[in-house]
Amino acid sequence: MKKKIQQKQNLLKQSVFFGYLSCLILVMSFPVEADDSHSEMDTAVAGSNLPHIPEPMVFDLVRPLGVRQGDLEMNVLSAHSLRSGQAGWAPEIEFGLFDNFAVELEMPFDQLSLSDYKVAAQGTLGTGFNNRFIHGWQMIGYHDRKEQKYSIDGLYIAGFRWNSAISSLSMMGLRRKNVERDGHFVGLFNNSWFYDYSEKLTLGIEMNNEFSRESKWHYLLMPQIHWNFNNHVTVQLGAGFSQTDGRQTDWLGTWRMIYAF
User: CA–CA separation, 43 vs 257, rounded Å?
Assistant: First the structure.
């Protein structure tokens, strides 16, 4: 009996979460008007017409929203667990295939072993609120080399420039963990806030959340700094922690090196 009650409670919690997620997407999408204007939008330099929204360090975008055709970026992310000593890193290449549409190839490594293949596509839907708001979508496919299984993410992205210094970026969606019959869905909600201290220095904080069946919850909190050396080179540094289901906290040190052509 207790098990059935717990299952009903878990189902209710998941229903509330996904209902809330759907409402958020609907509300944020409604007042937006498409904007076909184009502007320069590099990793390290703000655009002139589109709102400049920095990219989160850990769960980054496939180039900024509003990408131009031919834009190219190469970067590598590294994360080091201060508790276990394990390190992971992921080189990736991002390319603007068309205006407002970009693709990505990423190869995550666990220590020196290639663990996954990751491909992604991202599109920009438009802007609103006098070009202070921009939104889009992202699809990500994963191939786990060890388990020989596939997963896929579908995300809605919304960025808002609050004033000349403060901006935010939210990513909401679902992950199908293992597309085979034994897979399950994971809810994703990521939110980041940024403060542009100067043209070269940005301070930020990133919160990544994953909600899965049986009320399991994983989160990552990552304060970070972004330093733009020039129009091409950006370095991001962060130190934070992650936790799953309230268990032991894992402290992380991370960095990302970016070169935009």
Answer: 11
CA–CA dist 200, 187 (Å, integer): 34
Question: Nearest CA to 152 among 125, 179, 132?
Answer: 179
Task: Return the beta strands (E) in 112-200 as ranges.
Answer: 113-114, 116-128, 133-144, 149-161, 166-177, 184-196
Closest by Cα among 181, 222, 219 to 203: 222
Element (H, E) at 28: helix 2-29
Quote the pTM value. 0.79
Q: By three-state DSSP, how is residue 154 classified? A: strand
**Token reading at 146:** 């060890």
Q: What is the pLDDT of residues 29-76, one digit of tens each?
A: 433 343 333 333 333 333 458 999 999 999 999 999 999 999 999 999
Give the pLDDT confidence of 173-214 residue by residue, as tens digits: 999 988 877 788 999 999 999 999 999 999 999 999 999 876
